[in-house]
Amino acid sequence: MGDKPIMAKATAVWLVDNTTISFKQIADFVGLHELEVQGIADGDVAAGVKGFDPIANNQLTQDEIDAAEKNPLHKLKLKYNAAAVGEEKRRGPRYTPLSKRQDRPNSILWLVKFHPELSDGQISKLVGTTKPTIQSIRERTHWNISNMEPIDPVALGLCKQTELDAAVQKANAKRAKDGEVMSDDERRKLVSTEQSLSSDPEPRMPTAIEGLETFTLSEDDSADDKGDDVPDADSFFNLPEDNGEDDED
Fold first, then answer.
1. Tens digits of pLDDT across the chain (249 residues)
2. Last residue of some domain: 55, 90, 125?
3. d(C-alpha 21, C-alpha 40), whole Å
4. For residue 47, is it within any domain?
5. Where is the composition biased (Basic and acidic residues) (predicted)?
6. Residue 146 CB partners (closer than 8 Å, separation 6+)
7. Total of domains in the chain
8. Do 165 and 86 fall into the same domain?
9. Sign (positive or negative) of CA dihedral 162, 100, 126, 15
10. CA nearest neighbour of 168 among 150, 188, 191, 194
11. Which residues neighbour 58 within 8 Å (Cβ) at sequence distance 6 or greater?
């Protein structure tokens, strides 16, 4: 996967619409069959998929496209990006199906609301979005903010629960390490989850007898007196004497 662009079909759509590169060259570059690229050009494949600009997204250079347009035998090479080396292993869903894209802002709103500790970069990896979009939702300046509702991205299938849990754990660990100042609400959340889970269990008095400790343990002599008054087990089962004779036989 390391030598293929992200969002293969959307990249192919863009190349078909914006260049004169051959279908075979595009197919080889994005990892599709040549007939699929032909189908994209005919409108039979990837209908409704918005083109993904490989130049703007650091996947191709204009020089590479120019070379491919001039020479049908030229093989497009993915632009080397040092920052992306090894990123494939950690990246969340890189391509969101068209049917779920309208729910993506709702999932971002959910993450921003319920997991304020997550960074923009973490949210971007989890649901496959951009930082400007996240910022607009954080600041409530998104064009559709009034119609949005927070929806769990796991429920929408945009990321796995394990990925979300790992991101939250990493964010909390980083905050604790950096000693970052948090709001009271955020501090309570952290104390109730991470810190309480990692701390040693302390002996606690059951809530049913809280407040009675001073009553039962206040004075030794009162405890002794009470101990003398405690009836033995047999006394509970002693029957009246006058009935005892009737029941003997």
1. 456 788 888 999 999 999 999 999 999 999 889 899 998 888 888 777 888 888 888 888 999 999 999 998 999 888 876 544 444 444 444 466 656 677 889 999 999 999 999 999 999 988 888 889 999 999 999 998 998 899 898 888 888 888 999 999 999 888 888 776 555 665 555 544 444 445 455 555 555 555 555 555 444 554 455 555 556 656 656 656 555 555 554
2. 90
3. 14
4. yes
5. 175-191
6. none
7. 2
8. no
9. positive
10. 194
11. 79, 81, 84
d(C-alpha 128, C-alpha 141), whole Å = 20
Quick one: tokens of 102? 């309208």
Both tokens of 4, joined, read 């293929």
